[in-house]
Amino acid sequence: MHSDPQLQSAAKTNASLMARRRAALPAGLGQTYEVFAERAEGAEVWDVEGRRYIDFAGGIAVLNTGHRHPKIVEAVKAQLDKVHHTCFQVLAYEPYVELAERLIAKAPGNFPKKAFFLSTGAEAVENAIKIARAATGRQAVIAFGGGFHGRTLLGMALTGKVAPYKVGFGPFPAEIYHAEYPNPLHGISVADALRSLEHIFKYDVEPGRVAAIILEPVQGEGGFYVAPFEFARALRALCNQHGIVFIADEVQTGAGRTGTWLACEQWGVAPDMITMAKSMAGGFPISAVIGRAEIMDKPLPGGLGGTYAGNPLACAAALAVLDVFEEEKLLERSRAVGERLKAGLTALMTQHPEIRDVRGLGAMVAIELFDGGDLSKPAADLTRRLCAEALKRGLVLLSCGLYANVIRILVPLTASDALLDEGLAILGESLQAAKG
């Protein structure tokens, strides 16, 4: 079927493309901004009308190495000239094995590990749960309120946020329980969160039936709340006590966003399994599960895998990402970017009482907004207006949080200081305009 020539001949504008989009795509496929990208480089994007934007969204934490990093592009082109698909389970290829070896070497924990690849973060999470169930012979899983683990059925069940992810999609898989996530700003201490776990063990399911506890080191969609390291250590002890598999969901935090390759490196204790995706291949679709060898070997042959999983082009991109991090010292840069962002946002907080918190780990940074600075009045409308005003001025922002009042910054780590400062200045101007 050929495209309508009238559609093709029409001038490409954001409005005309949005009209085609609405006619062809379902309403449930959300879109934050009515903008169509034409090209991108580093931390900048140009739309089909030639307008330039500073990208503080980074494809939702996918572009830590920036748009079209030349070394990643070169690696993918070179792989494309060799082989671009066989299905690894049919005919293997070395980049898959090399990537597994290098990721295993970077994962915390003084024990043998194994790794394998899938295509999306949700798949990685689902497979981690599968492996935990196979390894323990148990079914129940504990996740946390505000957590996000994907849009598949099990991913939605694990996700601790109803709207928009769960509305109308139930029933969900059984034996999923949600504990409280530490959030001092909203009155939940580490002790409160641990108490909520004990309540689950008393009221809902005995620990001897729990296969896994899954935790985001920094909640992504939930609002960029950092899990206190003491909380992670307490969970490690609890899992040791009851034979529960401890899973760190590093889909958004991994690949250097928090100042270390993996956020869980900062805990002082190691999880049993780690899920990765997003920035690990600079935008090419691949995800990983890395874990204790004895746990990873429990599923029978054929129980793990996928047709596209660990695609050769994505493996080549991921290996290039690892090289870029080493050669360009991007972990150091991540920490420097985070410090610069926090300093700029803290300065804005002194001018705008609506900003009640500046937080983050490394370059995974956010602000939380409240009407009049009142912690009982999350400023969802102000946050929405701020994003709209920023876009008018050429800055792409993302909101998040249970109350839709958090601005999260996921700018590429390769962005220059001048670009960061330009973006922060636009953010300040936009907030002033949004307040009216």
Describe this structure in words.
The protein has 436 residues and is α/β, with parallel strands linked by helices. Helix content is 39%, strand content 16%. It has helices spanning 5-9, 14-24, 58-61, 70-80, 94-106, 121-136, 153-158, 190-203, 229-242, 293-296, 312-327, 330-351, 380-392, 417-435, and strands spanning 37-41, 44-47, 52-55, 113-118, 140-144, 176-179, 210-215, 245-249, 273-276, 287-292, 355-361, 364-369, 395-396, 398-400, 406-409. The strands form three sheets. It has a seven-stranded mixed sheet with strand order 4-10-9-8-7-5-6, with helices on both faces. A four-stranded mixed sheet has the order 1-2-3-13. A hairpin with a 4-residue loop joins strand 2 and strand 3. Helix 5 crosses helix 11 (312-327), helix 12 (330-351) runs parallel beside helix 14 (417-435) and helix 13 crosses helix 14 (417-435). The radius of gyration is 22 Å and the shape is globular. The chain starts with a helix and ends with a helix. 47% of the residues are buried. Residues 1-9 have low confidence and may be disordered.
Helical amount among residues, as a percent range?
A: 25-40%
How far apart are the first and last residues' alpha carbons, in Å?
50 Å
| Beta-strand content | 15-25%
The radius of gyration computed from the alpha-carbon positions, rounded to a whole number of angstroms, is 22 Å
Derived structural class: alpha/beta
For the report, how would you describe the main beta sheet?
7 strands, mixed
Number of strands: 15
Strand order of the largest sheet: 4-10-9-8-7-5-6
Q: What coarse outline follows from CA principal-axis ratios? A: globular
State the order of secondary-structure elements, H for helix, E for strand.
Answer: HHEEEHHHEHEHEHEHEEEHHHEEHEEEH
pLDDT average, as an integer? Answer: 96
Unreliable stretches: 1-9
Treating each run of at least 4 consecutive H or I residues as one helix, how many helices? 14
